[in-house]
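Re: the request from the purification team.
They wanted to know what the chain is likely to look like in 3D before they choose a buffer screen. I agreed to run a prediction and write the result into the notebook, where they can find it.
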Amino acid sequence: MALIRFVTARDVFDAFATAQQDVNAEPNDMASLEYLQTLADRGELNKAVSFCAYLLPRREAVWWGCRCVKAMLPKLSAEEAALLKTAENWIQMPEEEQRVAALEHGMGSNPNWPSTWLALAAGWSGGNILLGIQATAQAPPQQTARAVRGAILCAVSRLAPQERDKGLRVCVEDGARIAREEVQ
């Protein structure tokens, strides 16, 4: 069974208050993967990446973001690699301890790093997002998608201008394969 949570593109936009703003495209009743492919075919790769971040379930979206960042930026600094590892730890074992560790690490890291956004994506996947105080707050449902989107777009900005479309296209293709469960 595919990991498609939403049958149509409109279903994605209806599920998340920020999806239309982030994707910057009009919803329609096209099948989700067909909509994703249409954006990519038109060369609207930023929009396709944004849509895919919302389309995938949270855990798979973070996994996809990690894969994309590692593919585009294979030589991360030790600090950035450690952040990425906290997100990957949560992917491998999506339990509260790993989620909180990713959130704590992401909250204290450089917002210009794609790996910071991946750690935050894992941290914002559920549970209490208030750290160190006796109160609770749940992350809005779109926060993981927004953070994954931010990580990928941040990573692509580090590529040479002539390499950016290729990097985004590879990410979109990988996201579509994950959605169809063609990746292990």
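For the purification team: DSSP finds ten helices and no strands in the chain.
Please add any questions underneath this entry.
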